[in-house]
Amino acid sequence: MAFTLAPTSASEGFRLEAHDSVGSTNAIALERARQGDPGRLWVVSKKQESGRGRRGRSWATPEGNLAATLLMVTDCDLKIAATLGFVAGLSLADALDAVVPGGRIRIAPDGGSGERGNRFELKWPNDVLAEGAKLAGILLESAVLDRQRAAVAIGIGVNVVAYPHDVPYPATSLDVLGANCDAETLFLALSDAWSQNIRLWNGGQGLGHIRKRWLERAAGLGGEVAVRVDGDVVRGVFETIDEDCRFVIRNTKGEIVRIAAGDVHFGAVASAGAQ
């Protein structure tokens, strides 16, 4: 089966560039923008050899996994454009719900519990969890094109057939979860779900609706968390994400702390100490 766009996506002007193997889908997307591409371009592959995660971490995508990047060219403020990561997380979770058979969610030592009935939960700021383990990651990268426009590459990597074992957190794949789903089927659903959620986002004007939907899927909400921020660890209870999608904690002193960037740990790991 070849990669294809959902009919809704194609009808709204999204386009597709598919590869058998790439270095980095994000790098290709940003290069296309510098070459004059107007955006709404999906770059996809089942193998990625030099992808990146947050904070420069490597993110390899072996054969059969999904590496997808959506290039958006926008004139909105980059602070608003950064919230497209939350649109991506919602879209991927919606797509997974559509293509993966139902199953039991269990509590994991460093992940969500599925207590609100979600099989796939969203871990702030950019992970999708299944059974408390990391199933997918999202990375946004941007480049200024001129005084009015910027390119935003929204990278989405999903463990379809394999997951990394040499990582300091639980990870999983759709194959391990017993899902009979390939990368092409998942991408078809993802392109459809993105079209729905980007309409809701509406250039940032609908961010409140995105935030509400995201919180309905939030991993660890109301539980004990530890967040590593610039070498320090902030501990407390995960209260919400605010109107700017910052992570909001009530710390051990009862104070509200808003965090724009950091690594989040839940449950037993939070209690033992985020390393």
TrEMBL record:
Looking at the keywords, is Ligase present?
Answer: yes
Please give the superkingdom of this protein's source: Bacteria
Molecular function via GO:
ATP binding; biotin--[biotin carboxyl-carrier protein] ligase activity
Enzyme Commission number? 6.3.4.15
Where do the BPL/LPL catalytic domain residues begin and end?
Answer: 8-202
Q: Per the record's keyword annotation, is Ligase included, yes or no?
A: yes
Q: Which GO terms describe its cellular component?
A: cytoplasm
Alphabetized, the UniProt keywords read: ATP-binding, Biotin, Ligase, Nucleotide-binding
Which reactions does this protein catalyse? biotin + L-lysyl-[protein] + ATP = N(6)-biotinyl-L-lysyl-[protein] + AMP + diphosphate + H(+)
Q: Which PANTHER family match?
A: BIOTIN PROTEIN LIGASE, BIOTIN--PROTEIN LIGASE
InterPro entries (alphabetical) = aa-tRNA-synth_II/BPL/LPL (IPR045864), Biotin_CoA_COase_ligase (IPR004408), BPL_C (IPR003142), BPL_LPL_catalytic (IPR004143), Transcriptional_repressor_C (IPR008988)
What organism does the UniProt record list as the source?
Borborobacter arsenicus
Question: What protein name is recorded for this chain?
Answer: biotin--[biotin carboxyl-carrier protein] ligase
